[in-house]
Amino acid sequence: MKTRQSYQHGSLRKIRRKKGPAVWEFRYRDNGEFGRREKQLTLSTADFPTETQVRRHLEALLWRINADSPRCLSKELTFGALADLYIEEEHLKAIAALKPGQPNTIGSLRVSTARGYLQIIDNHIRPRWGMAKLSEVRAAQVTAWLKNLSYSSLTKAHIRAVMSRLFKKAMLWELLPLEVSPMSLVEVRGVSKRRKRPTVLTFEQCEALLNLLPQPYQTMALIGLCCGLRVSEILSLRWTDIDFDGLSMHVTRAVVRGIVDEVKTEYSDDELPLDSDFADRLRGWKQQCPPSSEGWIFPSPVTGRPYEPGSIQQKVIRVAGKKLGLRNVGWHTLRHTYRAFLDASGAPVGVQQKLMRHAQVSTTMNVYGNAIMDSKREANTKVVKMVLKNGTKAENVAVVGFCGVNETAPGDGNEQKTNPCNCLAPVAL
Fold this sequence. Notes:
single chain; DNA polymerase, domain 1; hpI Integrase, Chain A; alpha+beta; 4 domains; three-stranded antiparallel sheet; disordered C terminus
């Protein structure tokens, strides 16, 4: 008969060394499939100066090794320990440590996402809520804390989102009852409002911009304007993604900070049509393209790997835009312009959503729904012409009013009196 596992606290002691600072030595039993084995973990006193700090750090480990113990189910963790469990399960540190050129085969999160989560946890959540028990993190307190932070509304929303994700994991791991997360009651105002109107280029401005860009940046920008790809998708394209015979392009990956990863969402992974004239432009670039071992469409001549988009935007795209008198022209300007051109072409909203590869049509309409002025003027003119059909002049317009004709009504006795008619009829002005 299998006995229930007793709760273990492990053994912690400080060991002084002949050279270097002292270290913490933590010993515990691992009741795995190979039997009970004693394990040892060494921690630096520089990272954890006091015993209280190191025990707080070991809290998540103790919860994991005591997961089968009945006492573990009743033991309440701190929010910092919950964050440690989440970091371990999602392999955040391993993903964040990936170097340029290394594929992300570790976890489901992107490198930029993992690094962002770690930054929010270490810089914001852990200093304020790391020592608090899960039941002590209340919605009203979090709301007041976020309100007093001197950060933008978007940053506050990101902090709230990470805390919400941690609470959901706590419910999944049965650390909290399956109920509404307190973070669902926390609101961050001003996030949904776009403070800056996105720049949308006209056809003439697009042509002028492309003429100012040298290769390979000209072809990069051309793909953004003709296909609406994100810069991370443009720079991660391989020649095997282009089907010149079938006139199609398969978008399947993205490169962020030099790390080749999956595309932003499952809806971003899609096959897009290629216009024949645009395909000819790509063939022209293929004849000039430097060779690379992995067949990149835009390999850096220095590394043979994809370019870094940030430096290109600052040193090439923005500089060309300023020469044309345009401000804040960047990679995403090309994607916004592509969406505006789709609108100007009269493409149905559903088709626009598919070409933009958005999960929700609301994103297509709200975030990218800034049509160019010529298209808005043309649409408005069509409505005005329908209202003023056939050039109707004001003097010919009939106005509905009282007809003004007097009608005779019987009076008292034999006399009669006249009253104005109250009927409505067209009256010429």
